[in-house]
Amino acid sequence: xxxxxxxxxxxxxxxxxxxxxxxxxxxxxxxxxxxxxxxxxxxxxxxxxxxxxxxxxxxxxxxxxxxxxxxxxxxxxxxxxxxxxxxxxxxxxxxxxxxxxxxxxxxxxxxxxxxxxxxxxxxxxxxxxxxxxxxxxxxxxxxxxxxxxxxxxxxxxxxxxxxxxxxxxxxxxxxxxxxxxxxxxxxxxxxxxxxxxxxxxxxxxxxxxxxxxxxxxxxxxxxxxxxxxxxxxxxxxxxxxxxxxxxxxxxxxxxxxxxxxxxxxxxxxxxxxxxxxxxxxxxxxxxxxxxxxxxxxxxxxxxxxxxxxxxxxxxxxxxxxxxxxxxxxxxxxxxxxxxxxxxx
Length: 344
Known about the structure:
Elements: E1 8-13, E2 17-22, E3 35-40, H1 42-53, E4 57-60, E5 62-63, H2 67-79, E6 87-88, E7 95-99, E8 109-112, H3 123-127, E9 134-140, H4 149-163, E10 166-170, H5 181-192, E11 197-201, H6 202-208, E12 216-217, E13 226-227, H7 231-240, E14 245-249, E15 255-260, E16 266-271, H8 284-297, H9 302-316, H10 329-337
Parallel strand pairs: 1-4, 1-9, 2-7, 5-6, 9-10, 10-11, 11-14
Antiparallel strand pairs: 2-3, 7-8, 12-13, 14-15, 15-16
Helix pairs in contact: 1-8, 6-7, 8-9
């Protein structure tokens, strides 16, 4: 990876938003009195996280010509993320997310993505982006929920594979963004043949293999929705479709990296987490992805890269928001020193 001569370390494609997070931590959603405004959206968060660690990151997303879009763009430019490939979509709005914070396990989440700009990304937008000039192309499963973003994302992944750019899929299962949760599995399975690395939780891995809607336990909160299933079987099926690695996020337990060896057998690398007191779990997975990709680009190996991701995730769960609280490299190194370092 380090020998690959590309302008950008990582290119991220997908949603962006203004995130309104409850200032009244512990209060029920109906009792919230005020919100703090941050920037969010999974690929956007990862681009910021990678940049703060020291990677050269670029973002391909869509914004409306509206004050929310200006808010998002200003933040990204100040962070140093490459924004020249971001598209404005006249007639569409920048999206928003509203979140309640009731730790340790309740985080009611509401998306406002009707007529949103980032789902309007097209193949022409991809052709203007540096897919072949990046070491890694990363996208989220929500990209695939609607056209034209669906075909544009798959096209970008095809271009990346042709150019030798590594393709990283964050499963990113958001059931309220799909007309049928089984459709999520159908579409994601078509993307697996183009992915080198897949990142997801047990629920997301099961959702990617989902064929029976009775396996889903719906709740009022998108973040609490659970998908039942035999995750070990789902992992085997997923890896048989093409990816070389599947990173299974296990919260405080850390991450299990599932790898396919040359004989087709699955090997596992367990990278333990860092125990901390949780304030807000939203954004922790994106922080993990940013930290992991930093290590991956630097050729750190699976274990150390996953531990770097775990450290970033552990830091962010103690914070109030997502992109605005991504740690710097120096902050991560200071944090892991208290746990014996990344190699432990």
